[in-house]
Amino acid sequence: PKTIYLKDYQVPEFLIDHTDLHFTLADDMTTVRSRLSMRRNPESKTQDASLVLHGQDMQLQAVTLDGTLLSASAYKVDEESLTVASVPDSFVLECETLIKPQDNTSLEGLYRSASMYCTQCEAEGFRKITYYLDRPDVMSLFTTTIVADKAAYPVLLSNGNNVDSGENSDGSHWVKWEDPFKKPAYLFALVAGDLEFIEDSFTTCSGNDVTLRIFVEAKDLDKCDHAMQSLKRSMKWDEETFGREYDLNIFNIVAVDDFNMGAMENKSLNIFNTSCVLAKPETTTDAAFQRVEAIVAHEYFHNWSGNRVTCRDWFQLSLKEGFTVYRDAEFSSDMGSRTVKRVEDVNFLRTVQFAEDAGPMAHPIRPESFMEISNFYTVTVYEKGAEIVRMIAHLLGKDLFRKGSDLYFERHDGQAVTCEDFVKAMEDASGKDLSQFRRWYSQAGTPQLAVSGRYDEVTSTYSLTVKQSCKTVQETPKAFHIPLAMALLGEAGALRLQLQGAEPNPDSADNTELVLDVTESEQQFVFENIPERPVPSLLRGFSAPVQLHFDYSRDELMFLMSHDSDGFCRWDACQQLGVLALKDMIAAYQAGQDMQLEPRLLSAYQHLLSDESLDKSMVALMLSLPSEAYMAGIMPKADVQAIHIARMTAKVEIADQLQALFLQAYKANTLSQPYQANEQQIAARSLKNTALHYLMLSETEEALALCLAQYQQAQNMTDSMAALSALVNSSFEQQKQQALADFYQRWQSEALVVNQWLSVQAGCYLAGTLDKVKALMAHPAFDIKNPNKVRSVVGAFTANAVNFHHQDGSGYEFLADQIITLNALNPQIAARLLGPLTKWQQYKDESAALMRKALQRIMAQEQLSKDVYEVVSKSLN
Ligand code: HT7
Ligand code: ZN
Questions:
Q1: CA–CA separation, 726 and 708 (whole Å)
Q2: Residue 625 gets which letter from DSSP?
Q3: Cβ of 264 below 6 Å from ligand 1
Q4: How far does residue 427's CA lie from ligand 1's centre (Å)?
């Protein structure tokens, strides 16, 4: 496969002013007729070029130029394109193509999911629908007519407004849609099916009434309310926070079962994976309720950050994704607890994105090259991209950041632009210089910040020395501009900060927090008039996506855990104490010695469980030891078995020692009110189920009784799954089998619940899980063509470190088999599943060799898709 480079970008040679599409959906074949009003792009250097349109996997029937049918010699078709040798400066091109959505298992382009037709065009799926200039800087006005059998497909949807419709004598009907906004083809959508909907409305800030509909299969109609309420909250929030008003009188969401990602922001017709839109207490966990709200918001926010202002090319993907993730994270923070949201996001970033940045697929948030763009919908582009926007917001301050985003939207409305345009708008609006900051866009890798502190009693000064470094597999980047938020904590609280050589900061009322501009590879910051030896609170709120190293003593971590006013730092201090405790135990295990649990950790947990004034969600988060994946990421040549055994030993010790407190927390947080997915209830359930988890680790009869009672009496899926998961990972074999059978029996007709049943089993850390996973793949509930099922079984298994990394390599071989099968069916999903194998350098030599062997077996297959080839070849390099 060919590599495409950002440096080779050229403006399009042709533009498409109008795109008129006509679909006839029939069982054996779909006919697509397109009518494109085109002209040469005056900005292109080549004014005599042939017309080359993208297109693949379809059968071309006829091409007409300005009404004249072209003979076969006037054009050329290959696997990926249609070339018309000679065209005038302005013309109308019509194509008729045949496609087979019913055979399209890649879930890109037009495909079938259950009994409906739907589309997924981002990034390059439109070229599987008709020949087109399938690139985001070609923006066009679309009209779409859909013809289909009326009984089977009563609902026919596309972008924009429904402008006409009618019926034919053969039982078919048709609907014509017109989108008044120019858009790139990746935002095109079509849906046809036997769907029902819930409807609501929203009146925008300037008084426009918008009809909101969520379309689902009839059986799911009772699971749409939460998404609808989330949508209305998002619309209001975007008006208030970013001044963004919705721009049409209609906004539709459709839920589909087969979908490669979470959802898609097609103009006025968002298409969602059912798992990201359907929710009701009986079938949906708290975490999934929160995910629905966040994803509904994310897709809605794209209407401005992505649709009204779109990307010039796919290298700019983070322009829309990073910014929109930042926007949805701010929304979630405003809807719930800001600290909890921050901790969850940082935990994810540090575990998953840092690993990507340290591996062979590392790339800057604006990549410089790719073979297959679908491989770059990554945690780096999304989550690290959002961190870069967050740093800009931090550096500019709230008001200037808003001024910058207003300028960006106003300046570029209706355009396809670049990350540079975004940064420039921020600079122009604020007057701040972001030149060095721009390196975050072009350099990969996680900067390492080594910080040390020295207190001088004689001069009452405290000096912080900050050294930054960054290494990636490919290169050593130049120094980043890193905003380092910090405070100095004394016995009685945060100390006033006076930085040597700086004016006192008038913005901050008490001057106890500062953001240091770290811009060099080594810098010193001296604070004056510091009356006592302080404990520094560093990287407050996780002010930059870096790995911080400060040699805190365990007592200092204990101090930060209870005294830092920054919630993120309190949580992080607890995590770092957990890291030190686990490292000791891992080392002891590897040396064949007894594993001793750090007593401070036990007393910290004891304190967390005893102090009723603390936020319950935060307590639950702090009671969770650093994950095995996080530990693997920070240890050279990770020994997965040792990490797992040490961590389990620590957990069982904590469970045994603090049994009474866990029981008390369990009882105190058992709610009697009806379920609500609100902050308080979610927090209480989270703490209660954390307590249940620990209680079950002690495997007492009392814990088992509690767990079984919770499982049997649960009125909501959060409690039900927490109990089931505790049972599945316990040695109460008979009760476990009974609960699993009962659960399936009860929920077999609810696909999303069955997926949770699959994943709790695939994620079981006990021995023998791989055989169970293989059996699950033969179960009628499994379907390899459905990405949600694949993620629930294969994805959950690969996240189950101790089983996936079994020393005999069986986990790797199993994954390679699945990737080889999926390569032919759904290359995007196959390539995504490869992720865990690509991180082989993180693991001890024996594991790394077996992981490479599995990769080599995949590499040796014939007919590897571009998606899989790119990831495997780069990982083996
Ligand atoms: N912008 C959407 C991207 C997306 C996608 C990309 C590749 C393959 C399938 C896909 N489905 C959706 C999702 C989003 O970030 O909002
Ligand atoms: Zn997005």
A1: 10
A2: P
A3: yes
A4: 29
Q: What is the pLDDT of residues 143-155, one digit of tens each?
A: 999 999 999 999 9
Within 13 Å and on the Cβ side, how many CA atoms surround 644? 15
Measured CA distances, 198 to 116, 156, 219, 226 (Å):
18, 16, 12, 11
**Distance from the CA of 253 to the center of ligand 2, in angstroms?**
15
DSSP state of 479: P
pLDDT for the residue numbered 507: 57
* pLDDT over threshold 80, residue 473: no
Q: What is the pLDDT of residue 476?
A: 80
CA distances from 136 to 184, 310, 317, 323, 591 (A): 5, 7, 10, 17, 57
Instruction: Report the amino acid identity of residue 15.
Output: L
pLDDT in tens, 419-431: 999 999 999 999 9
Q: ipTM of the assembly?
A: 0.99
- pLDDT tens for 179-196 read 999 999 999 999 999 999
Cβ contacts of 640 within 8 Å, gap of 6 or more = 628, 632, 801, 802, 805, 843, 847
Q: 416-417 and 310-311: which strand pairing?
A: parallel
Report whether residue 383 contacts ligand 1, using a CB cutoff of 6 Å.
no
Question: Separation of 453 CA from ligand 2 center, angstroms?
Answer: 41
Amino acid identity at 162? N
Question: pLDDT per residue over 260-274, tens digit each?
Answer: 999 999 999 999 999
d(CA 710, CA 472): 48
pTM to 2 decimal places: 0.98
- Using the atom order of ligand 1, give the atom closest to the CA of residue 382: 15
Q: How far is the CA of 295 from the centre of ligand 2 (A)?
A: 8
Residue type, 204: T
Q: Is it the case that residue 474 has pLDDT exceeding 80?
A: no
Name the amino acid, one letter, at 613.
S
What is the per-residue pLDDT for 505?
62
Testing ligand 1's pocket by substitution, the residue of 254, 261, 267, 370 carrying the most ligand atoms inside 8 A of its CB is 261
As a whole-number percent, the residues of the chain with pLDDT over 70 amount to 99
Alpha-carbon span 699 to 825, nearest angstrom: 43
**What are the CA-CA distances from residue 351 to residues 348, 365, 440, 626 (Å)?**
5, 17, 19, 10
CB of 172 shorter than 6 A to ligand 1: no
Quick check: CB of 719 below 6 Å from ligand 1?
no
User: Has residue 86 got a pLDDT over 80?
Assistant: yes
Q: Which residues are catalytic?
A: 299
Q: Which chain residues have CB less than 5 Å from ligand 2, an ion?
A: 321, 324
Hey, whose CA ends up nearest to atom 2 of ligand 1? 264
pLDDT on residue 503: 79
Query: What six digits make up the tokens of 475?
Result: 């290169």
Within 10 Å of residue 10's Cβ, how many Cβ atoms?
11
**Chain centre distance of CA 717:** 23
d(CA 510, CA 816) in angstroms, rounded, equals 58
H/E stretch holding 569 reads: helix 567-590
Long-range contacts of 508-512 (CB under 8 A, 24+ apart): 512/487
Average pLDDT over residues 441-456: 98
Ligand 1 pocket mutation, candidates 276, 377, 829, criterion most atoms within 8 A of CB:
377
Q: How many helices (H) and strands (E) does the chain have?
A: 31, 32
Neighbours of 127 (CB within 10 A): 24
Largest CA distance in the chain: 96
Report which secondary-structure segment, H or E, holds 547: strand 547-550
Range 635-652 average pLDDT: 98
Q: Do residues 375 and 831 make contact, with C-beta atoms less than 8 angstroms apart?
A: yes
Mean pLDDT of 823-851: 98
| Cα angle, residue 222 at apex, residues 230 and 340 outer, rounded to 5° | 35
Q: Is 828 in the pocket of ligand 1 (CB under 6 A)?
A: yes
Distance from residue 699's CA to the centre of ligand 2 (Å) = 43
Ligand nearest to the CA of 325: 2
